[in-house]
Amino acid sequence: MQSKLVRLLGFRLILVRLVLFTLILLLPACGTSNGSLSVTWTIASSTDASFCGKYGAASIALLVNDSSGNQFSRVTPACSAMSTNIPNVPEGTYTLIAQMLDAQGNTISNSIGPFAVSVTGGAVTTQNIDFSATAFSSTPGTGTLTVAWTIENSTSAEECTKFNASNISIQLTDASGNAIGAAHINPCSVFTLVMTELAPGTYFVTSTLVGATGQAVSTTAGPSSVTITASNTTTNSVDFPASAFTFSSTTADASS
Predict the structure, then answer these.
(1) Is the domain 35-135 a CATH 2.60.40.10 member?
(2) pTM exceeds 0.85 for this model
(3) pLDDT (0 to 100) of residue 166
(4) In the CATH scheme, what is the code of domain 143-245?
(5) Which residue, 165, 137, 133, 170, is CA-closest to 152?
């Protein structure tokens, strides 16, 4: 009888230890949860959705990168929605960049951001973005340049990840080779950049894909000659083939 009692007590002790061990394993999982990112936008400080049509905006491209500069999400909700929610975002710090798109998916505004946002598990983080009128408009008598790039003839964000390309660096120079302002840095996965209010004339464009810390990961495409005319949009297209990512210190022309 005593032997059975000892065995029973021993079994219960083992059972209690197993339950405690299981609870210890489950506690960290129970304490961790995802949050969500709510993004709202205004145009000229207005929430009037009719402003989307006024400026020719069909949708908005929202790019969310994690703290390492890697793309976490890219969504393109309708401009007229004036808000969207990105669910299941792991707790942490992110950057948010936005651009307005027309019905064909072309960018029609400057990039707004990056905004630093901190997401907390189980909570909603809200970020508002305002597109001022000047983000769309251009000065009369000036022209617009759109630079569109592809990787292996594709606009898939997976191509950027494949070659560790976080951003693209685009430098505009005049006919004499003098830089027009600083290089434009845009997320690789956006695949378009719009430069407005350019004086009519001949320019040259060079483009280089760069990593998260700014180091070049491709050869430089260009310089490509472009001609800007008043009240018109000129498009410069460039493709980075796979061979553009196996480069030496010599600059090569990867443009199409």
Answers:
(1) yes
(2) no
(3) 95
(4) 2.60.40.10
(5) 165
